[in-house]
UniProtKB/TrEMBL annotation, chains A, B:
Record keyword Magnesium present: no
UniProt pathway: Amino-acid biosynthesis; L-proline biosynthesis; L-glutamate 5-semialdehyde from L-glutamate: step 2/2
Example of a GO biological process term: L-proline biosynthetic process
Molecular functions (GO terms): glutamate-5-semialdehyde dehydrogenase activity; NADP binding
Location relative to the cell: Cytoplasm
SUPFAM superfamilies in UniProt: ALDH-like
Reported function: Catalyzes the NADPH-dependent reduction of L-glutamate 5-phosphate into L-glutamate 5-semialdehyde and phosphate. The product spontaneously undergoes cyclization to form 1-pyrroline-5-carboxylate.
Keyword flag Ribonucleoprotein: no
EC number: 1.2.1.41
Organism: Flexivirga aerilata
Reactions this protein catalyses: L-glutamate 5-semialdehyde + phosphate + NADP(+) = L-glutamyl 5-phosphate + NADPH + H(+)
UniProt name for this protein: Gamma-glutamyl phosphate reductase
UniProt gene name: proA
C-alpha cells in the first residue's frame, strides 16, 4: 500500500467498521426474531420489490446503458438485465424462503451428563455476514433473504456494474424492513471502491464470515486478503469420467447434459475422461453430439487420434486446457488407462467441486466415491444437479469448494453457527 | 519481510511444502482405513510410547535442563515435565480414543430427490491438518491420536521448549505406524524456526486446516498470517454473573470452583458480575471464600466499597482488568444494575468462550442463554465443564471460540468435513 492510498483506506475502514457495528446491533434483534416474524418480513420484502418494479427497472437501465457504453459483453448484459418478469421471479424466491423451515433453534445434538448437566447444541445465526459478488443483481435479493431467514445481518458488496440496481433494491428492502419493525441495518450495501472490500474482509470482531461469489480472481483476492473467516465458493473444473463398464448411451446423455445444459455455471462439466477400452466406441458418438451442440474439443493425443480418424475438428489440449474452467462451449478430453488414472487426473486438475463417474460396475463406483476428494461425487448423473435448489435446500448462497464448515451447496443451515446451552442445578468440578 | 529473510523462508517453504505433499499421500491411505485398522494402530501407538518411556523421559529431561537454564517459570516446567506415570496417562488417552466411535462415514443427512437421485452427506477426513501449539508435550500425542482416528494426516509444530521431547515422541509414533502398515507421514513434526509456522499457515492447497493452540499471542499471529482455513481456539475471558434471583450458596460454590479449581486454563472464570440487589449480601461471603483461596480482587467502584466496608484487600479494577484473561488467582469484580447490564458487559469484554448465569429465575436464564453470544452459555454450573472430556467427546483438540465449522469443545467430529455422495441411474437436467 502506498502512502497516498492510506487516507482512502482509512475512510473505507471507518465506513466499513460503522457498517459492522450497525450490523451487530441489527443482528442482536434478528437473532431473537421468531420464524413467524421473519416469514412475514420476507413476504413484505417480496411485495415491496414488486411494488418498486418501475424504479428498479429504471436503475437497471442506467446500469445497462453505462455497461454498453463501456463495451460490456452481451452475456454479462443478459445477466445484469432485470425485467418486470425477472423481478417477479426474484420476489418469488423470497416467498419460497418464507416457506422453508427456520434453521435457528434446531437442536443438533444433546445429552445429559452423569452429573445431571443437560447439554444442547443449538443452531444460532452467525451474526454479521459479508458477501462480495459480481454483476447479477438477483444475488443481492437472495443474500438479503437468506440472511434474514437465518437471522444474520448482511453487508453486501455487489459489482460496480450493477451499482444503481443494487442501490435501489437495497433501499427498497431497507424501507420494507423498517415498516416490519426490523432494523434496516439488517441489510447494508457497501458501494465504495475496492478499498471497501479490503476493509470488509479484515473487519475482525465485527464481521463473522465473508462469502465471495464470482470469478476465480475475485474469490482468490478475498481468500488471500481476508483475516475474517471465509467460505470459498464456486470454481468448478468438473470432470465426467466414462468408465469401461459404463452404459455408453447413459454416458453420452450425461456428458452432453453436463457440458451443454448451461455452460456458464460452475457445475457445468469442463473435462471428459474416457477409459481406453471404450474410447474407440464411445468417443466418435460423443464427438458427433458435442459438435452438433457447438462444443469445441481440446483433445489429448489418444483422443486426438480418434477425432482425426472420424474427421472431427479438434485442437490438441495443452496442460493448461486441463486446468481450465472454460465456462463456455469448450471441453478438454482425455483417454485414461484405468480408474486409478482417472482419479489421479482429477486429483491433479480438479477444483474439488463436483466429479462424475458413469459406470455400471459397483466396485468402480464405490472406489471413485471413496477416493475422489470433492464436495460432490456422483455416479451416473449429470453434474448440473450440484445446486442448492436441486438438492432441496430451497435457496442457495453459493457452492463451497472448501472443507471447513460447509462443503457443496450452501443453504440456510450453512449460514448458521451453533451454541452449547448447558443447564445445571449447581454442578461444580 | 526483509531480503535477508528470504532464503530462510524459501527453505522453510520447500520443507513445509514437502511435508504437505507427504501428508496428502498419507491422508489418501488414512481416508480408506477402517475403524478396526485405526483402533489397532492407536493401541499399537500407546504400547510404543509406554515401551519408549526411558527414551522419552531422557529427552524430556534435556528440555527441562535447557528450560531451567533459560529461567523457565516453575508453572511451565510443571507443564513440560513427563514422568513414567504421565506417559502411561498419555498412552491411556490413545487407548481411550480407540474406544470412541469413528466419525468417518457417518451419514449426516440424506434424501431421495423427486427424480430418483439418492443423496447422502457423509463425514470424511479433512485431509492434512496443521497444529501449532506451545509447551505441553501431551498435545503432540493427543493430536496424533485424534488425527489418526479421524483419518487426517497431522503436521505438528510444537513449542521449542519441548523440542527434544516432541522429536522423540513423534519418532516413536512414526515407527509404530510403519509397523502397522500405515504411512509414517500420517504424523510429521516441523522443528524449524518461526518461518516454518509462516510456511505452514500459508500452504494453500496442501494443508486443509490449521489449529493454533496456546497463548493469545500465538493464536492471533496464526489467525492474522494464515491463508489456509484456521480454527481459532482457546482464549477464555469467562464471566460468572450472579443474578438477583440466584441461590447465593450455589453462586458461591460455582464462582469459587470456576475461579480456583484450575486457574491456568481457558475455562476458568476471570470475572465476577453481581446484581446490585444481592451484592451487599453476596459479596462479603464471596470475598471471604476468594481470600481463603488466595485470589486477588480487582474491583469496580461499587464492589470496592463493599470490600472496603468488610475490610477485604482489593485493588481498583482498571478498564484493562475487565478485558484480561488472568489465568491466575486474580478475579475482576463488578456490580451491575440488572441482567441487561450484565449482558452488555459480557458483550463488551467476553471472548465468546463460556459465560455463566446463576439464577433461579427461568426468564432470566432463558434471556441470558438467548442473548449472550458465546460458544457455551451455562445456567447454574461451573464454567470448568466446558471441556471435550466433560462433554463426553472422549478427547479434545481444543476449544473453538469462532463461529465457523466448530464452536466450543472440538472432538473427533470437528476434525471431519463432509462430502455429498449422489447416486443416479442416468439423471440429466
Amino acid at each position: 500500500m502506498t502512502t497516498l492510498d492510506q487516507p482512502v483506506l482509512t475512510d473505507a475502514r471507518s465506513r466499513v467498521d460503522a457498517a459492522g457495528r450497525a450490523g451487530r446491533r441489527a443482528a442482536k434483534q434478528l437473532a431473537l426474531l421468531t420464524r413467524a416474524d421473519k416469514d412475514a418480513a420476507l413476504t413484505a420484502l417480496a411485495d415491496a420489490l414488486v411494488a418498486a418494479t418501475d424504479r428498479i427497472v429504471a436503475a437497471n437501465e442506467a446500469d445497462l446503458l453505462r455497461g454498453r457504453g463501456a463495451g460490456m459483453p452481451q452475456g454479462l448484459q443478459d445477466r445484469l438485465t432485470l425485467t418486470p418478469e425477472r423481478i417477479a421471479d426474484i420476489a418469488g424466491a423470497l416467498r419460497a424462503l418464507a416457506a422453508l423451515p427456520d434453521p435457528v433453534g434446531d437442536v443438533v445434538r444433546g445429552s445429559t451428563l452423569a452429573n445431571g448437566l443437560q447439554l444442547r447444541q443449538v443452531r444460532v445465526p452467525m451474526g454479521v455476514v459479508g458477501m462480495v459478488y459480481e454483476s447479477r443483481p438477483n444475488v443481492t435479493v437472495d443474500a438479503a433473504g437468506l440472511g434474514l431467514k437465518s437471522g444474520n445481518a448482511m453487508i453486501l458488496r455487489g459489482g460496480s456494474a450493477a451499482a444503481d440496481t443494487n442501490r435501489v433494491i437495497v433501499d427498497e428492502l431497507r424501507k420494507a424492513l423498517e415498516k416490519q419493525g426490523i432494523a434496516p441495518d439488517a441489510v447494508q450495501l457497501l458501494d465504495g471502491g475496492h478499498e471497501d472490500v479490503d476493509a470488509l474482509i479484515t473487519a475482525r470482531g465485527l464481521v463473522d464470515l465473508v462469502i465471495p461469489r464470482g470469478s476465480d480472481r475475485l474469490i482468490q483476492a478475498v481468500v488471500q486478503g481476508a483475516t475474517v473467516p471465509v467460505i470459498e465458493t464456486g470454481v468448478g473444473n468438473v470432470h465426467v469420467y466414462v468408465d469401461s463398464a459404463a452404459d455408453l448411451q447413459q454416458a453420452l446423455a450425461i456428458a452432453l447434459n453436463a457440458k451443454t445444459h448451461r455452460p456458464s455455471v460452475c457445475n457445468a462439466a469442463e473435462s471428459l475422461l474416457v477409459h481406453r477400452d471404450v474410447a474407440d466406441t464411445f468417443l466418435p458418438q460423443m464427438y458427433d453430439a458435442l459438435r452438433d451442440a457447438g462444443v469445441r474439443l481440446h483433445t489429448d493425443p489418444r483422443s486426438s487420434a480418434i477425432a482425426e480418424r472420424v474427421g472431427t475438428a479438434y485442437e490438441p489440449a495443452t496442460e493448461s486446457d486441463f486446468a481450465t474452467e472454460y465456462l463456455d462451449l469448450d471441453v478438454s478430453v482425455g483417454v485414461v488407462d484405468d480408474l486409478a488414472a482417472a482419479i489421479d487426473h482429477i486429483d491433479r486438475y480438479g477444483s474439488g467441486h463436483t466429479e462424475v463417474i458413469v459406470t455400471q460396475d459397483r466396485a468402480a463406483a464405490r472406489r471413485f466415491q471413496a477416493q475422489v476428494d470433492a464436495a460432490v461425487v456422483m455416479v451416473n448423473a449429470s453434474s448440473r444437479f450440484t445446486d442448492g435448489g436441486e438438492f432441496g435446500f430451497g435457496a442457495e448462497i453459493g457452492i463451497s469448494t472448501q472443507k471447513l464448515h460447509a462443503r457443496g451447496p450452501m443453504g440456510l443451515q450453512e449460514l448458521t453457527s451453533t451454541k452449547w446451552l448447558v443447564d445445571g442445578d449447581g454442578q461444580v468440578r
